[in-house]
Design a protein that fits this description.
Strand content: 15-25%
Helix content: 25-40%
Largest sheet: 7 strands, mixed
Structural class: alpha/beta
Number of strands: 15
Number of helices: 10
Radius of gyration: 21 Å
Amino acid sequence: MQHRDMTGCLPRRSRRRLTTPAAALLGAASVVLIGAVPAGATTRPSKATTSSTGPWVIDLSNTSLDNGWRLEMQAAAKLAVKSASLSHAVKFNLVNAANTVTGQIQSVQSMIAAHVNAIIIDANSPTALNSVMDEAVSKGIPVFSIDSPTTSNEVYHMGTNLVESGYIEGYWLALEMHSKGNVVMSEGITGTGGAEQENAGGYMAFKKFPNIHIVDQYDGQWADAPSEAGMASVLATHSNIDGVWNEGGADGVMQAFLKAGDPLVPITGYAFNNFLLDPFSHPTLKMIAGSNPCFMSVTAIQDAVKVLEGGKVPKTQWFPITMYEYPKLLSGMPTTFPNTGATAGWSPPTYTLDVKGTTAVPGVSAEFSWPYLAPGFHYSLSQLEAAM
């Protein structure tokens, strides 16, 4: 696990310029066609319709399947297109490829060649997919970039403001540390716009606290196993850690502390079910977990249908952030944010207490993500789990 020693709040390596959050999902190695051919088949439906009434061929492209968020995002889309409101309007392809920019570009090129009607993408890079996404748009195929930010001006963007999420969690961590001490940053997937924006939000918060020192960083990949491995490596070389800023895979961070026999420190993370359950088996844990609704894939499908039918939807959409805290709601948390170019779309988050049985459910998958239900749909938690 690669990690980088730090001497202060600012990273040694340069960070790319921040832009509008969104995401991109692309791949070509495996195809699941919902409704038209059996699951696992690689046969495509016939050439996409050119009428204004559908059914519309909509491809969702993804490249990373090593964290629960991506699996749940796909599962929500699979269930939604079987609903009464979408089943007759959409022929849905779920496409997963190797987790590389090259594989993602080739996947989108295949979609363009197949004349699909719309593309939804969770992108591997904030910039590298721009040209192929723009090519799709130039050929009349609307593209909806969800989750991880991309910088194309031609596509629709949909997600949460990840700078805001990183900032809020960094601010909470600094307050829990009484504004001083040593922080480790367990980051997301290197090179993605999502990780870059979350990191920037964290740095923005820590700069407000001059006695907070970032002593190490590593790539936690938004997943438990790499987060645990990276944290174990850090603990082997640093003896005085006062808090961990993590944006996904925080249960792995906690496990590294427990296995090392070290006392738990305040940990931030993402609203995976196992992390939300952790305080109830380890009461000394102080935590906060931010949300990034997996059902944005469903909203993207709905918007794609509206656009294909001649309607209009916002070019950029933001999902509100819910912050789950334990053991209490911390006073002094921000409701306003720094006025910078990276803060467009910021709004006060909802702060809620983590409650066993409500926001954390025993027996549910470890990396099941909250909130899970797309507005206007009625699939159950168990149905969503089964589809993951």
